[in-house]
Amino acid sequence: MVGAIKIDGVVKRFAQQDAEDVVALSGIDLTIEAGEFVSLIGPSGCGKSTLLRLIAGLNGADAGKLYIDGEEIHEPTYERGLVFQNPMLFPWLNVHDNVAFGLKARKVYKQNKDEVDKFVELVGLGSFHKSYPHQLSGGMAQRASLARALVNHPKVLLLDEPLGALDAFTRMNMQDELIRIWQERQTTMIMVTHDVDEAIYLSDRIIVMTPRPGKIESCIDVRLSRPRARSNPEFLNLRSRILGILNFAGNEKEPSYYL
């Protein structure tokens, strides 16, 4: 499995009625290696989720190009899985059938039925194959959403604030689950987050973006050994450095969307 991403001079605008176009992204150049875990972080509205949707192929760039393994991205495919903040499970389907949905849509379910069970087990829902979304906790529903994306064996998994709606305890457990799955699957992962600590805990590299129009301010390598301790002085120093880049270093109270 590969999954290298190259973003070359990407610009994205959004038209507004009776107003100038909003420039969401301006001149984005970025290379993400196969198997890398990268987080995108920056102020609200800086284009993080827009960039993720461009990589997914859900939207097209107004200028520049995006590539996966040297092939230009034109449309969504199962090779790029996408997980949103809300699990978006089908309420009329149980966990097994939610996870199997993409395989059935691609008409490859029969030969991959065992894969569904495998990935339900992988995300720790082995006892909940027949449970429906309303019977699941928020963390369990997000696990099911991850399994639904992973069962297609994507080269790249795109995570749009996937843990943002969870309570703090569940969120930390899910962070560990993400790391475990990433290490086991060696899938390229690109995650949007507003949480600096989360980005440091999970990532090989953190991409800090500017306020709109979104540009890349810094690319920061996270050279901390795993598993990572949030109380480690190196962790805390890196946290201060990133907050400094975000122009919030020294504030008594950080904005809520960074906590």
UniProtKB/TrEMBL annotation:
GO terms for molecular function: ABC-type quaternary ammonium compound transporting activity; ATP binding; ATP hydrolysis activity. Keywords: ATP-binding, Hydrolase, Nucleotide-binding, Transport. Signal peptide: none annotated. InterPro entries: AAA+_ATPase (IPR003593), ABC_transporter-like_ATP-bd (IPR003439), ABC_transporter-like_CS (IPR017871), ABC_transporter_ATP-bind (IPR050166), P-loop_NTPase (IPR027417). CDD domains: ABC_NrtD_SsuB_transporters. Residues 5-236 form the ABC transporter domain. This is ABC-type quaternary amine transporter. It comes from Sporomusa termitida. The gene is ssuB_3.
